[in-house]
Structures are given as structure tokens and as C-alpha cells.
Amino acid sequence: MGIEKWSELVNILEEAEREKKAIPRLSLSHPFNEEEAYEIQETWIARKIKAGERLIGYKMGLTSPAKMKQMNVSEPIYGKLLAGMLVENGESLPHDLFIHPRVEVEVAFLLGKDLKGEGLTEEEVIAATDHLMAAIEIIDSRYENFQFTLADVIADNASSARFVLGNRLLTPGKEEMATLGMTLRINGEIKALGTPANILGHPARSVAILANMLSRKGEGLKAGDFILAGGITEALAVQPGDLVQAHFARLGDVLIRFV
Length: 259
Hints:
30% of the residues lie in helices and 28% in strands. It is of the alpha+beta class. The protein has a single domain, classed as Fumarylacetoacetase-like, C-terminal domain (Fumarylacetoacetate hydrolase, domain 2, Alpha-Beta Complex). Strand 12 (243-248) and strand 13 (252-258) form a beta hairpin. Helix 1 packs across helix 3. It is globular. 42% of the residues are buried.
């Protein structure tokens, strides 16, 4: 498939996002592999940037052993974060901005130094990190019933939609970074408990894997990038009127309301 075919598939994804209407999986009518899926993702993101968006970071997906086993993969996947996806902490979002939104609690890294090259370690990630922040990611698959193949979800920018960052900045050590306790509440009811260790055993490992994946394409992470390391919790569906609040030890609260 050439660039014209990628443009055709991006048109389909764009329309689904714009019209808030789920579509059948792209691979049902246009088979493609995971490598080609990243080309589709890059074509879509490049089109958004040409239209005025700005790349501000990356998000990691499939970062739990259970999800990796379910999708039969040996490494996570990534998507790209754009400036228009960032939502203020505590903001109210119209539920109808989305098709079928779900929320995941994450931790976000803000890099203070570039990270590029293969074989990067958790220690190098931590040394390059300025701050860690609490985060909620709002994912919204463009596919019907939130069902997809690995290639489909990669092409769909890893279901990225919006993300919210907490206001408190922290520079924790390696051990503390993985053990910050988190409580997720929806409308005041506890829905999940966890720590960043749920992300591949350590969230910095997720960022190192991302940097190594990018390096295979001759790319890298840059100072100022935000990295959502992966879900601490399962993705939970939300409805109009829901108040989603995640509280982290030392990182404070991050919350979003759907109206």
C-alpha cells in the first residue's frame, strides 16, 4: 500500500473522530500489519500538525502483562500526544465530544533532557526526567464496540483522545516512583487502587521501551515532552455527569468531570 491508501484510511479515521461515529475496524477492508499501522498513525498525526496542531509527547499502551498476553505482543504500543488533547485539571468536558470514552489513571513524565538511542535504561530515563505528575487519560477508540486488532489500534493513535495532568510536580527517586499509592473514585465511589508498579513493573521501564522503539526509526524523545507511561488501572467507561478523581500519595489529585 502506498501513501494514497494511507490517506484514504486516515480520511476514514478523521471522519469517525469528527462525526463521533464508530466505524468497523479498518483491517476488515484494508489489511495491514503493525509496521504499516504506525505509518497510518504518522500520516494522521502529520495531517493534524499541518492543520495547526503541535506534538507535545507520547502515550504508551498495552503496558500490563495481562494486556500484552491478550493481544499476543512482546512489547507495548505507542501513540502521539498533541497540544489540543491536553485538558486543564478539574475541567468539565462534554461527553458528546467522544464516541464511547473510557478513563485510565496514569503517571506522566515531563522530560528535562533529550532521550535517544537504543538500550536506554530506567536509570537514564529517571536522570532525564524533570518531574512526575498524576494523570488521567481519556481514550476513545474510533472502532465499533471498542474492539480492534493490534494493527487497528496502532493506526488509531492508540485510542488517544484527551489527557489531564495534576498540578503537583514531583521528582521522586526510583523506588518511590514505582510505589506511589493511587485511589480512583468515580462519583465518590472507589473503583480501583494501584501503584505505578502496575506499569511493566516500573513506569520508567515503559518510557525506556518507548525511547528504544523510537530509536529504531531514527527518532527520539525531546526535552519538554510529556510521556504517559501507561494505565495503572483498567480503562473504565464514563457517562454524562460522572466526576472522575484520582488521588496519588505525594502527587495529589487529578480530576475531570463529564457533562
